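README: folding subset

This subset contains proteins for which both the sequence and a predicted structure token string are available. Records are stored as plain text. Below is the entry for IS5 family transposase (140 residues), shown exactly as it appears on disk.
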Amino acid sequence: MITSGNINDTAMMTAVLENVRVPRAGKGRPRTRPDRILADKGYPSKANRAWLRDRRIAATIPERNDQIAHRRKKPGRPIDFGDQQQGRYKGRNVVERCFNRLKQWRGIAMRSDKLARNYRAAVSLAATLIWIKTDLPPPA
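--- output ---
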């Protein structure tokens, strides 16, 4: 989803996940609910965690330092981000590296396009050209 530049990630998480389609290994329609999401510190909020719990989607989202300090002041269940969660979170660097490669394109980094369709086209073109230059197999 493409939003204006002043919209924060936390507000858009549910809208993005509602548009996710997970392909099945065999025949059948794609699933609309992933098993787990990996997200950075821009996404933790009570509303997002409740939304994920209601849909039985496991989450690997580290807490921000201010939220950890707030949790220490109040009794309750702390969010465990132990060794297993840290191991899962290591896969997040692939996404961050992808963003980094895309932002090497000046127009994408600056978001200077007036229309969202032009920006989406630029991202698609850049992603295609990056993919062509790599030795990765084609997407399934």
